[in-house]
Amino acid sequence: MPGIVIVGAQWGDEGKGKITDLLAERADAIVRFQGGNNAGHTIVRDGQTWKLHLMPSGILHPGKLCVIGNGVVIDPKVLTDELDELRRRRVDTSGLRISANAHLIMPYHMMLDHAGEAKLGKLQIGTTRRGIGPCYADKAARLGIRVQDLLDEKILKKKIVAALEPKWHSLRPFARDPRLDLQAMTDDYLTYGHRLERYITDTSRLVLDKLDEDALVVFEGAQGALLDIDHGTYPFVTSSNPVAGAACIGAGVGPKDIDEVWGVTKAYGTRVGSGPFPTELEGELADLMRERGGEYGTTTGRPRRVGWLDLVALHYAARINSLTALAVTKLDVLSGLDQISVCTRYRGAEGAEFDYFPYHQSVLHHAVGEYVEMPGWSEDLSECRSESDLPAAAREYLAFVADFVGVPIALIGIGPSRDEIIWTEASRGMAGAAPVVS
Ligand code: GDP
Ligand code: IMO
Ligand code: MG
C-alpha cells in the first residue's frame, strides 16, 4: 500500500500521461492495466516530447518497475518499436515487465478492425484501427494469443490456426495478404518473443510484492470513463473498461489494494471518433480551442471534437470510479475567453431535463447541454505555481467544478510541460501528493 489509480474522467486524452509521470516521481511501480496502443500518452519534460502508446508513463524515471499488466492488449511490433525508440533516446528501459497473460494483437485483428469500420460506413465508431476491439473479442471468445504463447512455437502455431479458423469469411478480402501466411506470422511473433522474453513474467506477483512493501504503486488507465465498454456511450466506446475497478482485474490486485483514485479531466471537453458529445461546440470557438489546446489525436492525428466542460458526465465519472481527487488539466487553454460555459444538466429531445447521465442511448443521442455562464479571465497562467497565483475567475471556475462533482481538485495543469502544474492545498495529505516543501 498505497495504490493509486489514475483514470481518464472524460473521453480520453485528458492528460493522464503527464499526471502519471508526475506521480511516478515518488512511486515505486507504474502499471498499465487496460487498453493497448489505441492510447497515446504525452509527456513533455525538459523541452522534449514523449508520446507513449504501450509503455507505462513511468518509464522516464530510470529503473522504476514499469508493468504492462494482463489487462492490456499488446501489439508486439508497436512495443518493440517503442523500446527501440526509447533506447535510441537513451532511456533506461530495464524496469519494464510484461505480463505473460496479456493478450497479443495479431495482424488479423487490425484487418478485422479496418473491415468492421468499412462495413459500418457512416455508422462507424471511428476506432483507432489498431485491432483493439477484435483482440478483446478473441480474448472473450477464448481464442486469444497471449504473451506466454510467444515462447513456444508449437503452441503459438496451433493457437493461430484455431483463432483464424472462424475468421476466414471476414478475412476474405485479405486472403492473399502475406501477413496472414501461417509460417511467416509464427516466425514474426517468435522473433518478437525472443526480443521481449527478458521482460515477460508474473507481473501480478511483482505488483503485490511492491504493495506488501508499502511502496507507492500507480495504476495508469488509458482512454476514459465515457469510452468504457460497460458504462460509456455504447457502442461508441472502446473494448475495455477504463474505469478504476478494472485496475484490479487488469493488474491482478484486489480492491483493497486501491487507496486513491485520481480522475483526470480537461477544463473543457474533447472527443475523438463518433458518438454522443452533448456539450460539443462547432465553428470559430471550437476552432480556437482546438488550435490553442493542440487538440489533434496523439495516436491517429485526427482533429479532436471540442466542447465545454460537461459536469453531468464528470459527476457520473466520479461516481463509477469512486474518484477521491481530480486533476484538472489545460486550464491555460481557456485564458482569454470573456465567458466560460459549464454544463450542469442536459435537455432531451422532448424538453425533458436530466441531472444525471442518462442510461438510454436514444436520450443520450439527443441530449444537449444546459449551461451556467461564468466569467472568464485574460491572464496567461503559465507562470502560476500556486492557487493564489491564479486569477480570481479561474479559482471560481475550479471551485464550482469541485463543488458540483463533490471531489477535491489535487492538481491543476496550466501548460503541457511537467513543471506547468499547481499542487493544491486540497492535495496535502493525499498519498499521491507531492511532499510540502517549507
Ligand atoms: P492522455 O492520453 O490522457 O495521456 O492525453 P494526451 O497526451 O493524448 O493529450 C493531452 C495533451 O495535452 C498532450 O499534448 C499534453 O502534452 C497536453 N497537456 C497536458 N496537460 C496540459 C495542460 O495543463 N495544459 C496544456 N496546454 N496542455 C496540456
Ligand atoms: P488515451 O489513452 C481518445 C476512441 C477512438 C474511438 C473509440 C474506439 O490516449 O486517452 P478503439 O480503437 O479503442 O476501438 O476505438 O475510442 N479512443 C480514444 N480516444 N483517447 C484514447 O486513448 C482513445 N483510445 C480509443 O477514437 O472513438
Ligand atoms: Mg491520448
Structural write-up:
The chain is α/β, with parallel strands linked by helices and 438 residues long. The chain has two domains: 310 residues, Adenylosuccinate Synthetase, Chain A, domain 3 (Alpha-Beta Complex), CATH 3.90.170; 96 residues, Adenylosuccinate Synthetase, subunit A, domain 2 (Orthogonal Bundle). The chain is 30% helix and 19% strand. The chain has twelve helices and 20 strands. The chain has a ten-stranded mixed beta sheet with strand order 9-7-5-2-10-1-11-15-19-20, with helices on both faces. A hairpin with a 2-residue loop joins strand 3 and strand 4. The structure holds guanosine-5'-diphosphate, 6-O-phosphoryl inosine monophosphate and magnesium ion (MG). 6-O-phosphoryl inosine monophosphate binds next to helix 4.
Q: What's the total helix number? A: 12
Radius of gyration: 22 Å
Fourth-level CATH superfamily of the largest domain: Adenylosuccinate Synthetase, subunit A, domain 3
DSSP, total strands: 20
Main pleated sheet: 10 strands, mixed
Secondary-structure blueprint of this entry?
Layout: E1 3-8, H1 16-24, E2 29-32, E3 41-45, E4 48-52, E5 65-68, E6 73-74, H2 76-88, E7 96-99, E8 103-104, H3 107-120, H4 132-140, H5 153-164, H6 182-196, E9 200-201, H7 203-212, E10 217-220, H8 245-251, E11 260-266, E12 269-271, H9 284-293, E13 305-307, E14 309-310, H10 311-321, E15 325-329, E16 339-347, E17 353-354, H11 361-366, E18 368-375, H12 392-405, E19 409-413, E20 421-423
Parallel strand pairs: 1-10, 1-11, 2-5, 2-10, 5-7, 6-8, 7-9, 11-15, 14-16, 15-19
Antiparallel strand pairs: 3-4, 12-13, 16-17, 16-18, 19-20
